Amino acid sequence: MPSKKLDFKAGQYVVYPTQGVGRLVRTEEQTIGGQKIQMLVIDFERNHMTLRVPLERAEISGLRPLTSAKKMDEAIASAKGRAGAKRMIWARRAAQYEENINSGDPMKLAEVVRDLQRRSATDTMTFSARQLYLRALERMAQEFAILHKMDLDAASEKIEDILGVPKEIDLNAVDEDSDEEIAENETE
User: Fold this and answer.
1) pTM of this prediction?
2) Over 70: is that where the pLDDT of 26 sits?
3) Of the chain's two ends, which shows fewer C-beta atoms within 10 Å, N or C?
């Protein structure tokens, strides 16, 4: 079965499934075991990491160009849907979510975000569920940010706004009416 040749250019943003979005810095030739191998050098600025992927293994590793804005919008729309069935034990679901996150596929990332997002301001999450949710959201936001020319935090907020995820509750917030009532009660 013939495989399609991936064409990458220096300066291009790419997605490496287990690391997220990086910038292809250059292609270099390295000699390993007496063989000359073409390597793609990818910089993941956010992780402070540089990765070298053999060009002939790029497709097998899952390296891909950024998704289109249309496909990203479809993924976000799918994250608005109803959460999937939660009949299996948490350890298996968590492993499945981890696999989806490391796939680099925007639709699978959207599934994790959809299943783990808070539906109301009073919903609580376990620590591990929150970590998985935040990782999936960040991976989606990395591509979204580049596609829409915004920073990562703004992209995360925008995705959560689109999905209707409630903001965190500020437990230190005081209702203005309460302040007035306290002031009135003190003067009486």
Assistant:
1) 0.79
2) yes
3) N
